[in-house]
Design a protein that fits this description.
- By secondary structure, the protein is an alpha/beta fold.
- The protein is built from twelve helices and twelve strands.
- It has two domains: 167 residues, 3-Layer(aba) Sandwich (Rossmann fold); 124 residues, N-(1-d-carboxylethyl)-l-norvaline Dehydrogenase, domain 2 (Orthogonal Bundle).
- An eight-stranded mixed sheet has the order 5-2-1-6-7-8-11-12, sandwiched between helices. The protein has a four-stranded mixed sheet with strand order 4-3-10-9.
- The structure holds pantoate (PAF).
Length: 298
Protein backbone atom coordinates (compact mmCIF):
# COMPACT_ATOMS: atom_id res chain seq x y z
CA UNK A 1 0.00 0.00 0.00
CA UNK A 2 1.65 3.20 -1.19
CA UNK A 3 0.26 6.38 0.35
CA UNK A 4 0.99 9.79 -1.15
CA UNK A 5 0.66 12.85 1.08
CA UNK A 6 -0.07 15.67 -1.33
CA UNK A 7 0.65 19.00 0.33
CA UNK A 8 3.14 17.94 2.97
CA UNK A 9 3.22 21.05 5.16
CA UNK A 10 3.03 20.72 8.94
CA UNK A 11 -0.10 18.56 9.17
CA UNK A 12 0.57 16.47 6.07
CA UNK A 13 4.13 15.75 7.20
CA UNK A 14 2.91 14.71 10.65
CA UNK A 15 0.29 12.33 9.21
CA UNK A 16 2.82 10.96 6.71
CA UNK A 17 5.36 10.50 9.50
CA UNK A 18 2.90 8.60 11.72
CA UNK A 19 1.92 6.33 8.81
CA UNK A 20 5.58 5.73 7.91
CA UNK A 21 6.36 4.83 11.54
CA UNK A 22 3.73 2.07 11.32
CA UNK A 23 5.37 0.52 8.28
CA UNK A 24 3.35 2.02 5.43
CA UNK A 25 5.10 3.07 2.24
CA UNK A 26 4.69 6.85 2.25
CA UNK A 27 5.78 9.56 -0.16
CA UNK A 28 5.63 13.23 0.84
CA UNK A 29 4.79 15.63 -1.98
CA UNK A 30 5.31 19.32 -1.31
CA UNK A 31 7.42 22.37 -1.92
CA UNK A 32 10.95 23.48 -1.14
CA UNK A 33 12.48 24.38 1.24
CA UNK A 34 10.48 22.00 3.51
CA UNK A 35 10.52 19.08 1.09
CA UNK A 36 14.17 19.55 0.07
CA UNK A 37 15.23 19.58 3.75
CA UNK A 38 13.29 16.34 4.36
CA UNK A 39 15.03 14.83 1.31
CA UNK A 40 18.43 15.97 2.60
CA UNK A 41 18.19 15.37 6.33
CA UNK A 42 14.95 13.49 6.98
CA UNK A 43 11.69 14.66 8.56
CA UNK A 44 12.14 15.79 12.14
CA UNK A 45 9.06 15.53 14.38
CA UNK A 46 9.28 17.07 17.87
CA UNK A 47 6.68 17.80 20.53
CA UNK A 48 4.63 14.73 21.42
CA UNK A 49 7.42 12.55 19.98
CA UNK A 50 11.03 13.05 19.02
CA UNK A 51 12.05 11.28 15.81
CA UNK A 52 13.80 11.91 12.53
CA UNK A 53 12.41 9.84 9.68
CA UNK A 54 13.87 9.07 6.29
CA UNK A 55 10.78 9.36 4.05
CA UNK A 56 10.88 9.56 0.23
CA UNK A 57 9.79 12.92 -1.18
CA UNK A 58 8.74 14.37 -4.51
CA UNK A 59 7.95 17.83 -5.85
CA UNK A 60 5.25 16.44 -8.12
CA UNK A 61 2.57 13.78 -7.60
CA UNK A 62 3.31 10.13 -8.32
CA UNK A 63 1.28 6.95 -8.77
CA UNK A 64 -0.05 5.65 -5.42
CA UNK A 65 -2.81 3.50 -3.93
CA UNK A 66 -4.20 6.33 -1.82
CA UNK A 67 -3.70 10.10 -1.90
CA UNK A 68 -4.19 12.07 1.29
CA UNK A 69 -4.71 15.70 0.34
CA UNK A 70 -3.54 18.29 2.87
CA UNK A 71 -2.92 21.28 0.59
CA UNK A 72 -4.29 24.68 1.62
CA UNK A 73 -7.87 25.17 0.39
CA UNK A 74 -6.83 27.83 -2.18
CA UNK A 75 -4.59 25.19 -3.84
CA UNK A 76 -7.27 22.49 -4.08
CA UNK A 77 -8.10 23.05 -7.75
CA UNK A 78 -4.50 23.06 -8.96
CA UNK A 79 -3.73 19.97 -6.85
CA UNK A 80 -6.79 18.23 -8.33
CA UNK A 81 -5.67 19.04 -11.88
CA UNK A 82 -2.24 17.57 -11.10
CA UNK A 83 -3.94 14.37 -9.86
CA UNK A 84 -6.06 13.92 -12.99
CA UNK A 85 -3.58 11.57 -14.67
CA UNK A 86 -3.75 9.06 -11.77
CA UNK A 87 -6.71 7.02 -10.58
CA UNK A 88 -6.21 6.42 -6.85
CA UNK A 89 -8.83 7.57 -4.33
CA UNK A 90 -8.24 11.04 -2.89
CA UNK A 91 -8.99 11.67 0.79
CA UNK A 92 -9.27 15.36 1.64
CA UNK A 93 -8.13 16.29 5.15
CA UNK A 94 -8.29 20.03 4.55
CA UNK A 95 -9.81 23.06 6.21
CA UNK A 96 -12.90 24.84 4.97
CA UNK A 97 -16.00 24.22 2.89
CA UNK A 98 -16.05 23.30 -0.79
CA UNK A 99 -12.79 21.33 -1.17
CA UNK A 100 -14.54 18.02 -1.86
CA UNK A 101 -16.85 19.69 -4.39
CA UNK A 102 -13.86 21.18 -6.25
CA UNK A 103 -12.14 17.78 -6.23
CA UNK A 104 -15.27 16.08 -7.56
CA UNK A 105 -15.53 18.63 -10.36
CA UNK A 106 -11.97 17.90 -11.46
CA UNK A 107 -11.66 14.18 -10.67
CA UNK A 108 -15.22 12.86 -10.77
CA UNK A 109 -17.32 11.84 -7.78
CA UNK A 110 -15.95 8.29 -7.50
CA UNK A 111 -12.41 9.16 -6.48
CA UNK A 112 -13.19 11.65 -3.72
CA UNK A 113 -13.49 10.86 -0.02
CA UNK A 114 -14.34 13.54 2.54
CA UNK A 115 -12.56 14.09 5.79
CA UNK A 116 -11.61 16.43 8.61
CA UNK A 117 -8.94 16.26 11.26
CA UNK A 118 -8.19 17.93 14.56
CA UNK A 119 -4.59 16.68 14.85
CA UNK A 120 -2.34 19.63 15.61
CA UNK A 121 1.00 20.39 13.98
CA UNK A 122 3.22 23.46 13.54
CA UNK A 123 6.07 24.03 11.12
CA UNK A 124 9.11 24.90 13.22
CA UNK A 125 11.58 25.29 10.33
CA UNK A 126 12.02 23.58 6.94
CA UNK A 127 12.16 19.83 7.51
CA UNK A 128 10.98 20.12 11.14
CA UNK A 129 7.39 19.96 12.40
CA UNK A 130 6.07 19.99 15.94
CA UNK A 131 3.34 17.52 16.89
CA UNK A 132 1.22 19.81 19.11
CA UNK A 133 -1.88 17.79 19.77
CA UNK A 134 -3.42 14.37 19.30
CA UNK A 135 -6.85 14.77 17.74
CA UNK A 136 -9.19 12.75 15.57
CA UNK A 137 -9.56 11.96 11.89
CA UNK A 138 -13.14 11.67 10.60
CA UNK A 139 -13.61 10.19 7.13
CA UNK A 140 -16.64 9.40 5.02
CA UNK A 141 -17.87 8.69 1.54
CA UNK A 142 -19.63 11.71 0.05
CA UNK A 143 -22.79 9.59 -0.41
CA UNK A 144 -22.63 8.38 3.20
CA UNK A 145 -22.16 4.70 2.32
CA UNK A 146 -19.88 2.48 4.38
CA UNK A 147 -17.76 1.05 1.59
CA UNK A 148 -14.88 -1.41 1.64
CA UNK A 149 -12.39 1.33 0.85
CA UNK A 150 -13.58 3.53 3.70
CA UNK A 151 -13.15 0.59 6.10
CA UNK A 152 -9.70 -0.04 4.66
CA UNK A 153 -8.63 3.60 5.12
CA UNK A 154 -9.97 3.57 8.65
CA UNK A 155 -7.89 0.43 9.29
CA UNK A 156 -4.77 2.20 7.96
CA UNK A 157 -5.12 5.03 10.51
CA UNK A 158 -5.94 2.56 13.28
CA UNK A 159 -2.76 0.61 12.49
CA UNK A 160 -0.88 3.90 12.73
CA UNK A 161 -2.41 4.32 16.24
CA UNK A 162 -4.33 7.40 15.17
CA UNK A 163 -7.87 8.13 16.36
CA UNK A 164 -10.20 7.61 13.42
CA UNK A 165 -13.97 7.57 12.98
CA UNK A 166 -16.12 6.80 9.94
CA UNK A 167 -19.02 9.21 9.43
CA UNK A 168 -22.16 8.56 7.41
CA UNK A 169 -22.65 12.35 7.19
CA UNK A 170 -19.25 13.77 6.32
CA UNK A 171 -20.78 16.99 4.97
CA UNK A 172 -22.12 17.72 8.46
CA UNK A 173 -18.67 16.98 9.96
CA UNK A 174 -17.05 19.38 7.46
CA UNK A 175 -19.53 22.12 8.40
CA UNK A 176 -19.00 21.41 12.11
CA UNK A 177 -15.24 21.89 11.70
CA UNK A 178 -15.80 24.98 9.52
CA UNK A 179 -17.94 26.53 12.28
CA UNK A 180 -15.13 25.99 14.80
CA UNK A 181 -12.71 27.58 12.34
CA UNK A 182 -15.01 30.49 11.35
CA UNK A 183 -14.92 31.67 14.96
CA UNK A 184 -11.52 30.79 16.38
CA UNK A 185 -9.37 31.44 13.31
CA UNK A 186 -10.30 35.01 12.26
CA UNK A 187 -10.76 36.25 15.83
CA UNK A 188 -7.34 34.99 16.94
CA UNK A 189 -5.78 36.34 13.74
CA UNK A 190 -7.38 39.80 14.13
CA UNK A 191 -6.77 40.10 17.87
CA UNK A 192 -3.33 38.47 17.62
CA UNK A 193 -4.02 36.13 20.53
CA UNK A 194 -3.78 32.43 21.43
CA UNK A 195 -7.02 30.44 21.16
CA UNK A 196 -7.66 30.44 24.93
CA UNK A 197 -7.74 34.25 25.12
CA UNK A 198 -11.01 34.21 23.14
CA UNK A 199 -12.64 32.76 26.26
CA UNK A 200 -11.01 35.21 28.66
CA UNK A 201 -11.99 38.56 27.07
CA UNK A 202 -15.74 39.12 27.19
CA UNK A 203 -16.05 41.05 23.88
CA UNK A 204 -14.13 38.28 22.05
CA UNK A 205 -16.15 35.58 23.82
CA UNK A 206 -19.37 37.31 22.71
CA UNK A 207 -18.17 37.67 19.11
CA UNK A 208 -17.06 34.04 19.06
CA UNK A 209 -20.57 32.95 20.02
CA UNK A 210 -22.27 35.33 17.57
CA UNK A 211 -20.19 34.43 14.51
CA UNK A 212 -20.62 30.69 15.17
CA UNK A 213 -24.39 31.03 15.82
CA UNK A 214 -24.71 32.86 12.48
CA UNK A 215 -22.78 30.14 10.60
CA UNK A 216 -24.87 27.45 12.33
CA UNK A 217 -28.09 29.15 11.15
CA UNK A 218 -26.79 29.18 7.55
CA UNK A 219 -25.80 25.50 7.72
CA UNK A 220 -29.20 24.55 9.14
CA UNK A 221 -30.96 26.57 6.44
CA UNK A 222 -28.98 24.52 3.94
CA UNK A 223 -30.40 21.32 5.45
CA UNK A 224 -27.50 20.25 7.70
CA UNK A 225 -28.61 18.56 10.92
CA UNK A 226 -25.89 18.65 13.57
CA UNK A 227 -25.32 15.74 15.94
CA UNK A 228 -24.09 18.17 18.62
CA UNK A 229 -24.19 21.94 19.01
CA UNK A 230 -21.31 23.28 16.85
CA UNK A 231 -21.24 26.50 18.89
CA UNK A 232 -20.69 24.67 22.18
CA UNK A 233 -18.12 22.51 20.41
CA UNK A 234 -16.24 25.65 19.31
CA UNK A 235 -16.00 26.75 22.94
CA UNK A 236 -14.73 23.29 23.94
CA UNK A 237 -12.11 23.34 21.17
CA UNK A 238 -10.96 26.84 22.19
CA UNK A 239 -10.56 25.55 25.76
CA UNK A 240 -8.78 22.35 24.72
CA UNK A 241 -6.42 24.22 22.37
CA UNK A 242 -6.04 27.28 24.61
CA UNK A 243 -2.26 27.39 24.18
CA UNK A 244 -2.41 27.07 20.34
CA UNK A 245 -1.68 29.79 17.87
CA UNK A 246 -4.43 29.10 15.30
CA UNK A 247 -3.36 28.26 11.75
CA UNK A 248 -4.80 31.60 10.56
CA UNK A 249 -2.85 33.61 13.11
CA UNK A 250 0.30 31.71 12.09
CA UNK A 251 -0.41 32.48 8.42
CA UNK A 252 -0.89 36.19 9.16
CA UNK A 253 2.24 36.37 11.35
CA UNK A 254 4.27 34.68 8.61
CA UNK A 255 2.91 36.93 5.84
CA UNK A 256 1.18 33.98 4.13
CA UNK A 257 -2.20 33.85 2.47
CA UNK A 258 -4.89 32.55 4.88
CA UNK A 259 -7.77 30.10 4.32
CA UNK A 260 -10.39 32.79 5.06
CA UNK A 261 -12.00 32.34 1.60
CA UNK A 262 -12.82 28.67 2.24
CA UNK A 263 -14.03 29.34 5.80
CA UNK A 264 -15.89 32.63 6.49
CA UNK A 265 -15.85 33.53 2.78
CA UNK A 266 -17.63 30.29 1.90
CA UNK A 267 -20.18 30.83 4.70
CA UNK A 268 -20.97 34.30 3.30
CA UNK A 269 -21.24 32.95 -0.26
CA UNK A 270 -23.50 30.11 0.92
CA UNK A 271 -25.71 32.59 2.79
CA UNK A 272 -26.09 34.73 -0.34
CA UNK A 273 -26.87 31.64 -2.45
CA UNK A 274 -29.92 30.94 -0.28
CA UNK A 275 -30.99 34.59 -0.13
CA UNK A 276 -29.69 35.12 3.42
CA UNK A 277 -27.02 37.35 4.98
CA UNK A 278 -24.09 36.55 7.24
CA UNK A 279 -22.92 40.04 8.35
CA UNK A 280 -20.65 38.95 11.21
CA UNK A 281 -18.85 36.36 9.07
CA UNK A 282 -18.60 38.99 6.34
CA UNK A 283 -17.07 41.59 8.68
CA UNK A 284 -14.45 39.11 9.95
CA UNK A 285 -13.77 38.00 6.37
CA UNK A 286 -13.08 41.60 5.32
CA UNK A 287 -10.87 42.31 8.32
CA UNK A 288 -8.73 39.23 7.63
CA UNK A 289 -8.47 40.33 4.00
CA UNK A 290 -7.06 43.62 5.31
CA UNK A 291 -4.51 41.67 7.35
CA UNK A 292 -3.63 39.71 4.22
CA UNK A 293 -2.82 43.01 2.53
CA UNK A 294 -5.85 43.07 0.22
CA UNK A 295 -7.13 46.29 1.79
CA UNK A 296 -8.55 47.83 -1.32
CA UNK A 297 -5.61 50.17 -1.93
CA UNK A 298 -5.25 50.85 -5.62
O1 LIG B 1 -6.95 25.93 12.27
C1 LIG B 1 -6.64 25.72 13.45
O2 LIG B 1 -5.78 26.35 14.06
C2 LIG B 1 -7.34 24.58 14.17
O3 LIG B 1 -8.27 23.99 13.29
C3 LIG B 1 -8.02 24.93 15.49
C4 LIG B 1 -8.95 23.81 15.88
C5 LIG B 1 -8.78 26.23 15.42
C6 LIG B 1 -7.04 24.95 16.63
O4 LIG B 1 -6.07 25.95 16.57
Amino acid sequence: MKIMIMGAGALGSLIGGLLHLSGFEVILVGRPPHISEIERRGLKISGKMNVTLKIPTSLTPVESDLTILTVKSYDTRSAAKALREFDSPVLSLQNGIGNEETLMEELGGERVIGGVTSYGALRVEPGHVKYTGEGEIVIGEMNGKITERIMMISEIFTRAKMNVRISEDIKMEIWKKAIVNCGINPLTAIAGVKNGVLLEISSLRKLLREVCEEAKRIAEALGITFDEDPVERTFEVAKRTSENFSSMLQDVLNGRRTEIDAINGEIVRTAHSIGAQAPINEALYRLVKVLEGENGRT
